Amino acid sequence: MQTLYDTLQKYANVTRYDECYVSSILIEDGSFRGVTAWDLTSGEFFLIQGKALVIATGGACRMFGFTTYSLTATGDGLAMAYRAGLPIKDLEFVQFHPTGLVPSGILITEAARGEGGYLLNNQDERFMEKYAPAKMEVAPRDIVSRSEITEIEEGRGFSGPDGLDYLHIDLRHLGADKINERLPMIREIAMRFNFIDPIYQPIPIRPAAHYFMGGVHTDIDGATPAEGIWAAGEAGCESLHGANRLGANSTAECLVWGRIAGDEAAKYASSQKTLPPLPKESTLKDAEAQLFSRFSPDGKENAYALRKELQKTMDSQVGVFRTGPELETALNKIKELKQRVSDFRVTDRGRIYNTDLLSALEADNLLDLA
Q1: CATH (residue range 98-208)
Q2: Interatomic CA distance for residues 261 and 106, integer angstroms
Q3: CA 92, 93, 99 angle in degrees (round to 5)?
Q4: How does strand 167-170 pair with strand 203-212?
Q5: What digits encode the pLDDT tens for the residues 163-187?
Q6: pLDDT value, residue 281
Q7: Residues in domain FAD-dependent oxidoreductase 2 FAD-binding (predicted)?
Q8: β strands within the chain, DSSP E
């Protein structure tokens, strides 16, 4: 994002809508018309008319409680696309990164294993020898994550908080010089968030929800079935990754499909001599009412608590290993939670930085995608 921001400074003809929340994508007669947005700084609700749209809003792993995602990555773009009638696919393909820091979920990068870190169970064994003797700790992410959960489920993990039993990644044998030279950020994270110095102590880790292979259905150029709309990065699904991507391919995907989708959208916009017709007035009024009048201050449901229930369900029933009965239990629970959304209590009735309303909207988006 810093690089994107820096690059945008070169162009006087680019408008950034900082601190604005896009609430809906408007499609009429199969073609893009624009988006509705809410300016959190002023409270204004407005239409951005457009010839072309690129959806690049990332995934939705915040539906899980234990995830490497930032708190803001709640699948809003995917949920808006879904509600606008765009097909989404392959959302069941979620990558679990083998080394999320317990209990926060902060990513302990692949480099920790690439530089020679050991994965250890509670018997001090390098257990990857049983599962991938040739590759050991640097086996593909899905193999390492499955191996870790097997160790935990068979009782060879350490007891952790809120059911987050864990294993260790051990860097001690690398020595202080190598850790400080090659893995300084890992050391800083461990010290800041867990008060552990990996020069002297192993780091507690377990698999964390990390990446959505699925997203808005696109063709090989990132075009969606709606005229004038493309999707790129984690939000799009051109089926590049199959069921589980390789490490570093998310960055490659952003670079390649950012370029392809951006070029295609720009060419399309340039070929359109005029802006598309304005959406109907009733469409805009409905979108504004859906945003600001949907939830009552007298509702019985707490959006924050409901999101926690969703995350607990996803962590326990829809993790690395999944079974039919567990998925059915999770689906029934999600349907029950979805029924309760209409009764969300939003006590803040203002429009300026209404984080109470934002949280309710994000919980609703996560439930749609879950």
Answers
A1: 3.90.700.10
A2: 30
A3: 120
A4: antiparallel
A5: 899 999 999 999 999 999 999 999 9
A6: 86
A7: 2-250
A8: 20-28, 31-39, 45-49, 53-55, 88-89, 94-101, 118-120, 167-170, 203-212, 215-217, 229-231, 236-237
349 is annotated as an active-site residue = no
Q: Average pLDDT for residues 62-70, to the nearest whole number? A: 93
Q: Where are the beta strands (DSSP E) in 40-145?
A: 45-49, 53-55, 88-89, 94-101, 118-120
Distances in Å between the Cα of 142 and the Cα atoms of 147, 148, 288, 319 are 9, 10, 43, 12
Strands (DSSP E) along 292-331, which ranges?
none
Q: What is the mean pLDDT of residues 212-216?
A: 92
Assigned CATH topology for domain 2-94+210-271: FAD/NAD(P)-binding domain (3.50.50)
pLDDT tens digits along 224-266: 999 999 999 999 998 888 888 887 888 888 899 999 999 999 9
Active-site choice (33, 62, 113, 217): 113
Structure tokens at 1: 């994002």
Q: Tell me, which fold does domain 281-369 have in CATH?
A: Methane Monooxygenase Hydroxylase; Chain G, domain 1 (1.20.58)
Catalytic residue status for 97: yes
* Catalytic position from the list 16, 62, 83, 97: 97
Domain parsing of the chain, residue ranges: 2-94+210-271, 98-208, 281-369
The tokens for 295 are 């939830």
Mean pLDDT rounded to a whole number for the chain: 93
Is the full-model pTM beyond 0.85? Answer: yes
